[in-house]
Design brief:
Layout lengths: L1 E7 L6 H13 L6 E7 L6 H11 L3 E6 L5 H9 L6 E4 L11 H10 L3 E6 L6 H18 L11 E4 H7 L9 H6 L5 E6 L13 H14 L3 H30 L7 H33 L6 E7 L2 E3 L3 E2 L25
């Protein structure tokens, strides 16, 4: 079975087009069964009603309604908990990731790859977003070893065990790319055409992009802490050298006036650097604190599958709390897309 997982945000007018495209594409390959898991990530419009209507219309659709906006990666994790298929395909709700080309990814997985990412020759997004994507890829390589030649993005297909490995992560602030790379050794890219958005604009603001970047570098690496230590030692050495130079100059020229401007500049530099390094340590401590206090990855208000509705109030804490891999709840039958 193929399981499509789509986080949805402000897509009441586009998600139905994406679903119809998936259904038509898979219908051409009748040997495959499918399910389409739509996760409403606390969208302020009528996206929740739209995905429930799709679930009522199509038995293949599962509608998951989160209680508020938790972010794309948390929404993906919520969708993963509903997956029943052997191959998982993740894509966006805005039509930029063409569902009609999904079998380019799926067939590569069937060949034997663990995970297959789409690769776009030309991205239909702003230059700022393209620059941010390249910067994020460089960080992924440095902090958790993503191969330089691999282009990771929100459109990918993977084997079930790869997703199951990601679900072992119980803490808040998941970073799906890093979680998936923990368990794979066979990966590749497939060329896919990147389309224009059907409507609207990206829900990722600069603040959200920075938050996602912080999730990635603090969840899977202690290199920022090591970098903070190195910068501290470098700053200390610079301060000692500056003090030594000042003393020597004063000995050579006793009448030299005190350099108040340079002193203030040095104080500001050292003070700013110290605060920045403490901030890095504080980021780690804060995330540890939230994890200890079991801050949820997501909270599910309702799941609509088939012709019954799952009870509200599911809280994602530990992935193994139910036999169906749904956190802190059991499933009843029901009624009715990463980037940086």
């Amino acid at each position: 079975m193929l399981s499509f997982v789509i986080p949805c945000y402000r897509s009441e007018n586009t998600v139905g087009i994406v679903v119809e495209e998936i259904l038509a594409t898979v219908a051409a390959r009748p040997e495959h069964e499918l399910e389409i898991i739509l996760v409403n990530d606390g969208s302020p419009d009528h996206t929740a009603d739209a995905i429930k209507a799709l679930a009522a219309k199509h038995p293949e659709v599962v509608a998951v309604d989160l209680s508020r906006n938790f972010g794309q990666h948390s929404a993906l994790m919520a969708g993963f908990h509903q997956v029943r298929g052997d191959i998982v395909i993740c894509l966006d709700d805005d039509g930029q990731t063409p569902a009609c080309e999904c079998f380019k990814l799926i067939d590569k997985v069937i060949e034997g790859y663990d995970i297959v990412f789409a690769e776009y020759g030309e991205r239909k997004q702003t230059a700022f977003r393209n620059l941010g994507s390249r910067f994020n890829a460089a960080c992924n390589h440095f902090f958790f070893g993503q191969p330089r030649e691999l282009k990771a993005n929100s459109y990918f297909a993977c084997r079930r065990f790869v997703m199951d490995s990601a679900l072992q992560y119980p803490n808040p602030f998941p970073y799906v790319t890093g979680l998936l790379f923990q368990s794979v050794s066979r990966y590749c890219n497939v060329s896919i055409h990147h389309q224009e958005r059907l409507e609207g604009k990206s829900g990722y603001s600069l603040k959200k992009l920075i938050s996602l970047w912080l999730n990635g570098i603090t969840a899977f690496s202690i290199k920022p802490l090591r970098l903070a230590s190195y910068l501290g030692w470098i700053a200390a050495a610079f301060g000692c050298l500056f003090a030594l130079i000042t003393i020597i100059r004063k000995i050579v020229n006793p009448e030299m006036q005190a350099g108040w401007a340079s002193t203030v500049a040095l104080i500001l530099f050292m003070g700013g650097l110290t605060i920045a390094l403490i901030g890095i340590v504080g980021e780690y401590i804060g995330r540890i604190y939230l994890s200890i206090n079991r801050y949820p990855q997501f909270v599910v208000r309702e799941v609509v599958r088939g012709d019954a509705v799952q009870a509200a109030g599911e809280v994602a804490l530990q992935p193994d709390q139910s036999a169906d891999r749904q956190p802190a709840a059991t499933e009843s039958s029901g009624d009715g897309s990463l980037t940086a």
